[in-house]
Each structure stands twice: as C-alpha cells, then as structure tokens.
Design a protein that fits this description.
It contains eleven helices and nine strands. The protein is of the alpha/beta class.
Length: about 290
C-alpha cells in the first residue's frame, strides 16, 4: 500500500466525525485565518489546499465573495463532507487529487490557503514547486504545518522501546523557510507556536490521533503490529508525562508562514522566469524612447 493510499484511507474512514475530534487542527486553522486578515489582497482564484470537510473553504467564500474558491483534497470522504456545507446559492468546486500533481493550469491561483496539509507530502520541495507552478505572480501562499517537536511525548517514550520510529518526521521552521527561498518565493515570513492537547488517558490519546486520521508514515516505522507487551510498556512510560491534574499531554509545534509568488520558479533543469506581455511591451517602448 502506497503512503498516499494509506493517508487517503485513514482520512476517508474518519471524515464523517473529523470536525468533532480535530479540535487542534481547527484552532490552528483559525489562527492562520486571522493572519490572512492582515493582508490587503483581492484574490480572484483561491485554492483551499487540503480543504478537509470544507470549514475554511466556506470561510474563504464569505471573506472573498467575488473570488472563485476551489477545495482540493486527497480524500473523497472529506470532499463529501465539504459538499454538505454548500447551500443552493453558495457552492464552490471540489476536486480530489494529489498535491504533488494538481490538475490545474499554470499561474491560476492568487491565494493558496493550506492548513495542516503540506507535512503529509513525502517531499516539501516538490510541494512548493507544484504550488509555485499553479500560483499567479504576486499570489500569496498562507500555510501552517508541524515542526519537529510535535508529538515529543510519543517520541521520547518510543526511544526506550525499540529501534523503530513511532512518530512522523517534521521539518524545522528554518528549513521550511529555506525551502520557500529555494523555490523563489519572495519575502517569506515563518514563525512557530507551541500548543498542547490534554487527554484523560493514554488510550484516549492514541484513539484521538487515530480518529483525526493521523498515521505514522515514517519509513522507519514498525511494519508489523504492535504487541501487547510493547503497548503495556508504552502506557507505563507515558504516564511519566501526566500533569498534576492527571491528564496526558500531547505537544504540537505549529509552524505558520506566508510568502509571495515571484516571477521565477525552480525547474528540474534550471529556473523559469515569467514575464507578462504587457511588461514586454513596456520594456519595448522604453527602449525605443
């Protein structure tokens, strides 16, 4: 089973009740949406990348009523949930696909809103390259992703158990910024925040992650099933993180960022520079004068 198929299956399975359990992801999206309000932009075409059940597609439609919003997600189940949010008078296209190969023409989107999605891609540079392809010059990319301190409780507990990786690998925010620059995005702004969710038990913590569609896709994970002895050891070790109130914490390192699409984008064999016909005409006239 490919990683994409595994991720898609997990989110399809949990799509119906995703909004009820994905409270952290929703809060991160709210904070990302707040940041969007500081930008004085009037986008015509907006991509809600990894739109999930359509919560923020609807918000974007309200915020930018004259724009065309396109909700894009890997999981069909999520798009079905998003469709339920559409009224007879307020609809937007919903498209299923892989964010590494999106079925959109070059230079289409003036704004890309990507909440908690790009860390699911096997290659962040490839995601940024594809976003650079579908974005219009001067378009804005607004995103949130996860940093390396995410799920640190699970990682520290797992270190004492076996040689396998029990959490996904997330990029440092400085590496994310470098990736944006490498793809010729302009004026990237990246910052980090820490959030902590609390669960009544270790079992509830694991069940909560599963219900959110979270899966360990680390190549170094255990390919087999987790035995009872390993799970018992996990329960014993993670209890060391219990708070004074008896809660089990789970840390999220949240990376927020935005950047602007420039005239250039990186290609496999060089760099492509986009120059509009109007700019060529201006240059031609200036040279003649």
């Amino acid at each position: 089973m490919s990683v994409n198929t595994e991720i898609c299956k997990a989110f399809n399975k949990n799509a119906h009740h995703y909004e009820q359990v994905a409270l952290v992801q929703h809060e991160i999206g709210e904070r990302l949406f707040e940041r969007l309000q500081y930008l004085k932009i009037k986008p015509r075409f907006i991509l809600d990348l990894g739109c999930g059940p359509g919560t923020f597609s609807k918000r974007l439609q309200t915020c930018y009523p004259d724009a065309l919003i396109i909700g894009f997600d890997l999981a069909i189940g999520m798009l079905k949930e998003a469709k339920t949010k559409q009224g007879w008078w307020k609809k937007w296209p919903l498209v299923a696909g892989d964010m590494l190969a999106m079925p959109f023409p070059d230079g289409l989107f003036d704004l890309v809103f990507a909440n908690q999605v790009i860390h699911w891609a096997p290659s962040l540079p490839n995601v940024m390259s594809e976003l650079g392809r579908v974005m219009n010059k001067n378009g804005c990319l607004m995103f949130s992703t996860l940093g390396p301190d995410t799920f640190r409780e699970l990682r520290h507990v797992a270190l004492g158990q076996d040689k396998h990786a029990h959490t996904n690998h997330f990029m440092d925010m400085h590496d994310v910024g470098d990736c944006l620059l490498a793809e010729h995005f302009l004026d990237p702004v990246v910052d980090m925040d820490m959030m902590t969710a609390h669960y009544p038990s270790s079992r509830a913590l694991l069940q909560g992650l599963k219900a959110q569609g979270v899966r360990n896709i680390n190549p170094k994970r255990n390919p087999g099933l987790t035995g009872k002895a390993t799970f018992n050891a996990f329960e014993q070790e993670i209890s060391a993180f219990k708070t004074a109130q008896g809660k089990y914490p789970l840390t999220y390192e949240v990376v927020y960022g935005h950047a602007w699409k420039g005239e250039q984008r990186r290609l496999e064999k060089g760099t492509e520079t986009t120059i509009s016909v109007s700019e060529l005409r201006k240059t031609y006239r200036a040279n003649k004068e």
